[in-house]
Amino acid sequence: MYCFFLVNNYLNLPHKSPYMKKINFKKLLHHIIAIVIFAVVAIIYCKPAVESKVLSQHDVLGWKGMAQQSFEVKEKTGSFPLWTNSMFGGMPAYQIAFEPQTNIGIGLAYISKSLTLGFNEPASFFFLACLCFYILSLVAGANPWVAILGAISYAYATYDPIIIIAGHNTKIASLAYAPMIIAGLMLLYQQKYLIGFIITAIFASILINQNHLQIVYYTLLVAGFMAITNLINSIREKQLLQSLKASALGLAAGLIGLATCAVNILPTYEYAKETMRGGVSQLTLGKDSINKSKGGLDKDYALRWSFDKMETFTVMVPGLFGGSNGGNEHNASSKMVAKMTEIGWPEENALGAVNGYSYWGGMSSLSETTSGPAYLGAVICFLFIFGLFYVKSWHKWWIVAASIFGILLAWGSSLKGFNYFMLDYMPYLNKFRAPSMAMVIPQLCFPLLAVLAVSKLTSVGMDWTEAWKKLRFSVFATISVLSLITLFYFTTNFTGKGDTEIRDDFKQTLMQQVRPGQQPNQQQLQQADEATKSIMKALRDDRQSLAGADLLRTTILIGISMLLLGLFIRKKINALVVCFGLIALSAYDLLAVDTRYLNYDKYHDADEVENTLAPTAVDMQILKDPDHANFRVFNETTNFTNESTTSYHHNSIGGYSPAKLGLYQDIIEHQIMKNNIEVLNMLNTKYFIVPDQTGRQAMAQLNPGAFGNCWLVKGIKFVNSANEEMLALDSTNLRDTAVLPNSFKGEVKELPQYDSTAYIKLAERQNDKINYDFFATKPQFAVLSEIYYKSGWDAYLDGKKTNYVKVNYVLRGLYVPAGKHQLEFRFEPHSFKIGRTITICSTILIYLLLISSVILYLRKKP
């Protein structure tokens, strides 16, 4: 597909006949060489992956824990369920493991797969990002050799290997495809409407299908800046109609791409309204109204993981703020390692500590941390500055505007006034957290402007005098930036906001080593305090040393880049030499920093990684319970809201999801965190996994008080507000009394009446369907230990649809009349059915457009 794109638009091949074109392999040579370079670099950098080794990616292992139940169901039934019971008491499974139950998208999936040449992950990600940015550069009018420079710089910007090692595979795939959206829009603005429309529609579909909506959002922001800038430029050049036409086609193509993903997007959109990201909670207990955003995340939560303002310069100097928590920035010769080994710490532990605490920027509290800087490369940053002075195209203005906006968003809590305003008034922004992720916008924009600058410099007929003048301006500007960074280096104290916690942890550890289990005397306290101070000073010295070394490194790399451009402008070297010189320099620049985070040591045998999810002795004990599929487990040996290993084996009270149901998040914060046993019982928590008496081993603890899957209550307590409903859980006997909002009072036709013969029991429980047997001689109210989610679960009494209510803040309940009844719950979200129909129709439309364009191309006469 991309070969057709290149041939059709850029090679201008001679015609052999009106129906067949002659392939000019000489003109294809640039692109073949580029693809070979991308493949070789990916293979070398990811050599263990080519040898079938894998990364131990935290988020991938987490996803496997989340998705295991869905895969087990698929193995039995042939399709993924729409609901899972394995996390947070139950939640929609289409947020975890999903298939549209139709093969209509197989063609688009094939296009996507073919672009990676079949490489294993993560080599496939790097190759794909290179290829897509290379095409974008060509569309922007770049020299193919210069396009290679931009492609490698975009794909190997340090953020990419960092998120790969973390396991953010959908994010890196989305970043890889994002340049194709911008390329499609560029083609539309170049009035190449057919190919631009098809490229935009196809890759919008592929990008959105990765289901990383935050990267989609940032890509749309870049596209929006391009559209606005083109509109302004078209007004100046009196081509408004063409601009509006191109923008309209781009919007239409994007909507078609979105429609192909409707089977996933519509249920997700529906679900988002009920999540913590949708701001669904009506609780005001202990909450600051100023911090609350309308229909989204609380502002302080949304702005966690924000850049410090000066941290922006890590795009140019990677170690300016210490790099990361856990990379390979420091070695055994560091001052902190020396100081810690002096007082008896093993060298390996000391080295882990200095690397673990190296980062001291805006995300350095121990509850945040970061895996590395958003380093774009010293070479690319200098070429970007050069482009600011040298490039005259209208593209420069949207690139600069988008870059600035991305940086302002990344500052997050460091620029609260601006970002609070954005969260309040910018559509959908308050659905996302981690503002630092907005640095992916400069990651796309910086190398693109650099490519445009070097392409103009190496083009035929360029003005040598102007080029020399602009180079001088860019040199002065770059020296000014480096001087600012140098001033910061000499004036800052290299202390992060998490250092107090780090110091206290060290001091506590030292005290335990001096007198285990005993109170230390005054002299020992003083010695521990002095040792801690010396360790912290050594840590700050190491941070300063890293920043200084990287600042010197950046200065040297930029100096060489300046020299290459200067020699070319003075006609001492030719265009090919300067291009390949910059390619080699930039590749070395980025890959050398990348290996601090993703290197050969991070790879393992596949079996070794899989064994991390193997059941423990405690898991095996719980799995022996014959009712295992129906009860829940609470793992108290870990942060139960940030792990999914428990979900791999059991139906868990906890789990891992950044978009859990808002009602359940409220229950976690206000009830589970304080171990309200009544609430845990109503959630049918039959087993607790707790530490043993030594604190070193886990053990399973049976909870005989768990209420079971369903029960009948003796009475109902009606409340007026969400706050009253939550507070009522503190003092109510939930086995006998149900707590209901007054808004559901009309659904309870009669209050429950005592009946010693009445019962409700579980008959059959599947993920998407639950059956109960009921009998009573008087009306009853049943409480079901199932999470309330109104957008999909339907209740049927003896085959006829009936209403159910939210009870005990988070569960389902319903009035049941006297008699013998069959009660059934089915998860059948209408959004899924509608979305599947839209997906099929829009995907067929894309196929028809693609086929039509190929036919038109082949039939086009000279």
Describe this structure as you would to a colleague.
By secondary structure, the chain is an alpha+beta fold. The two termini are 22 Å apart. The model is unreliable at 1-21 (pLDDT under 50).
Mean pLDDT: 89
Helix fraction by DSSP (H/I, runs of at least 4): 40-55%
Individual helix count? 31
What Rg, in angstroms, do the CA atoms define?
A: 30 Å
> Largest beta sheet: what is the strand line-up?
13-14-20-16-17
Give the overall shape, derived from the CA principal axes.
Answer: globular
**Fraction in beta strands:** 5-15%
- Low-pLDDT parts are 1-21
Largest sheet: 5 strands, antiparallel
Number of strands: 20
Beginning-to-end CA distance, first to last residue: 22 Å
Structural class: alpha+beta
List the helices and strands and how they pair.
Layout: H1 2-11, E1 15-17, E2 20-21, H2 25-45, H3 47-50, E3 54-55, H4 58-77, E4 83-84, E5 91-92, H5 106-114, H6 123-139, H7 144-155, H8 159-166, H9 169-189, H10 193-209, H11 213-236, H12 240-260, H13 262-272, H14 299-302, H15 335-342, H16 347-356, H17 378-390, H18 395-411, H19 416-425, H20 440-457, H21 464-491, H22 499-514, H23 522-569, H24 575-594, E6 603-604, H25 606-610, H26 617-623, E7 632-635, H27 645-649, H28 662-670, H29 677-682, E8 685-691, E9 698-702, E10 710-712, E11 715-719, H30 722-728, E12 737-741, E13 759-765, E14 769-776, E15 780-787, E16 793-797, E17 800-802, E18 805-807, E19 811-816, E20 819-827, H31 830-859
Parallel strand pairs: 7-8, 11-12
Antiparallel strand pairs: 1-2, 3-6, 4-5, 8-9, 10-15, 13-14, 14-20, 15-19, 16-17, 16-20, 18-19
Helix pairs in contact: 2-6, 2-7, 6-7, 6-9, 7-20, 7-24, 9-10, 9-11, 9-12, 10-12, 10-31, 11-12, 11-18, 12-31, 13-31, 15-16, 15-23, 17-20, 17-21, 17-23, 18-20, 21-23, 22-23, 23-24
